[in-house]
Amino acid sequence: MIYTVELNFSDSARTDEWNAWYETYLMKLVSLPGLNTAQRYHLVEPGTAHWEYLALYSIESLAVYKTEAYRNIGGGGNASLAYKGLITRRRNVYEGIERMPEITDPGRILFCEDAPFGFDVPNAPFVPLVAGAGRQKAGATELDGQPVRRAVAVSDAATVDRLDLTKQEGLAVYAPITKRHE
């Protein structure tokens, strides 16, 4: 199961500070039993109708968000209180992928919600994802439960550029900004 956090951050003067904080937080998260991997990405073409940042986590179940250990590291938004007014986000869990692979540069994540089975992209098979829970409080985390269906694929920068995929409506293209933590 993957946990997705799509974010926008509104203070460009504090972006480096926020990214540094988030990198440290990812390392804390993967120390929790049941939270196996964490990696962050940035939208390749900012200003499009997509979330600017994406964090993908491989989790065993929603039970990780109910643990005292998760709450103790500030899970559920408490760790990011210093940035609360600067962040808008959407969170969900999806079944369809058990463990996210590490994406290194020049790799790209192709993430869509308008085409639940993805798009026809050479050498980038899309994996359909189905929401693993609806809108709910999952322990210390609030899930939005939307979209119910979407798809994800892995490609590379050359393919994205050659096919002009950043212009494909309904498709968000993300580049890694952190390594995969595990």
Shape: globular
Q: Which CATH class is shown?
A: Alpha Beta
Please give the count of helices: 3
Counted beta strands = 10
Largest sheet, in brief, is: 8 strands, antiparallel, barrel
Whole-number total of structural domains: 1
Helix content: 10-25%
Structural class: alpha+beta
Average pLDDT taken over every residue: 92
Span of the ends, CA to CA:
15 Å
Description:
This protein has about 180 residues and is of the alpha+beta class. The chain has one domain (about 1-175): Alpha-Beta Plaits (2-Layer Sandwich). It is built from 3 helices and 10 strands. The protein has an 8-stranded antiparallel β-barrel with strand order 1-3-2-10-5-9-6-4. Strands 7-8 form a two-stranded antiparallel ribbon. It is globular and about 45 Å long.
Topology:
Layout: E1 2-9, H1 15-29, E2 35-43, E3 53-59, H2 68-72, E4 87-95, E5 107-112, E6 127-131, E7 136-138, E8 141-143, E9 149-156, H3 157-162, E10 171-176
Antiparallel strand pairs: 1-3, 1-4, 2-3, 2-10, 4-6, 5-9, 5-10, 6-9, 7-8
What keywords describe this structure?
alpha+beta; two-stranded antiparallel ribbon; 3 helices
Brief summary:
The chain has 182 residues and is α+β, with helices and mostly antiparallel strands. It has helices at 15-29, 68-72, 157-162, and strands at residues 2-9, 35-43, 53-59, 87-95, 107-112, 127-131, 136-138, 141-143, 149-156, 171-176. A hairpin with a 2-residue loop joins strand 7 and strand 8 (141-143).
